[in-house]
Structure formats: C-alpha cells, structure tokens
Amino acid sequence: MSVVDNAIYVDGRRSITPGSLNSTFEELRACDGTRSFCWIGLLRPSREEIKAVADEFSLHGLAVEDTITAHQRPKLERYGDVLFVVLRPARYVDPVEVVEIGEVHLFLGPDFVITVRHAQEPDLAAVRHRLEDDADLLGHGPFAVLDAVMDKIVDD
Questions:
Q1: Whole-prediction pTM value?
Q2: Tens-place pLDDT, residues 14-55
Q3: Phi, psi (deg, nearest 5) at residue 26
Q4: How far is CA 126 from CA 76, 102, 119, 152, in A?
Q5: What Å distances lie between residue 53 and 37, 40, 45, 89, 130, CA to CA?
Q6: Which residues contact 126 (CB under 8 A, 6 or more apart)?
Q7: Domains and CATH numbers, the chain
C-alpha cells in the first residue's frame, strides 16, 4: 500500500486517522456539512489506488492519466471545482554534484487534498506536521496544504 499518511481534518485539527482509503471515504461522507477535508498522501501509488481515489472524488480522466503516467511538466489545471497541480522540485546534491528532479501531483477539491509523489523527495511529512501545529492556518482547508507544499518546494 502506498498510502503515506491519511487523515481527516475538522476546523484545522486532525480529527480522524482512517486505516484505509475506503474508511477515509466513509468518514469524510459522515463529516458532510462541517468544515472538514481529507488529506491523502500517496507515494508511488498503483494504478488501482489512483483509480479508487479518482472514482471517489470524480477526478477528471485526463488528470488521472497524467498522474498514472507521471513525467509531466509543471502545470495548474482546473476541472470544475477541482484543481490539478503538477510541481517539479529540483534539489542539488552537492557531494555528487547532481540535480535530482522530483514530481508531486496535487488534486484539490472543496473537501479533499490528494498528494501523489513519484519520488521520495520532497518529504511532505514535515509539511503536514507544520500545518497540524497551526490549526488556524490548516483551518483554511485544502488551499493551505497547496500553499505549504509549494513553500516547501521553493524553500528547499
């Protein structure tokens, strides 16, 4: 399973940490009408995992295909009320004088964020912890996550 972290946030606080994607989907539906959203973090997910998330959140087929095939250029696309963002962080590894290029895909909807990494870097655990320490910021929902991920990539 490629789920790195999976949580539901209510009013800027981690409320539920489901044990599976199906539990996340069920718990999020139960939170309907509250200031809640889920953040599902995936690392090198299988086609089936991406399809399960895509089906649950009605993600656009072109964006899903881009996520499955990876190797995309940086972009921001809007599909109805869902944003699809591709970021390509670059990191210079001084000892070996190499530039490593990562790839992060984000889907943002009114009540969800899905982050898909195709490389180990950037590690988004620190981003999640920083946001979880600031309920006011995380209370802004999915766009707070996008802002924090972009900040991490730019600062690294």
A1: 0.92
A2: 999 999 999 999 999 998 777 899 999 999 999 999 999 999
A3: -65, -45
A4: 24, 17, 16, 9
A5: 14, 9, 11, 24, 25
A6: 152
A7: 3-155 (3.30.460.20)
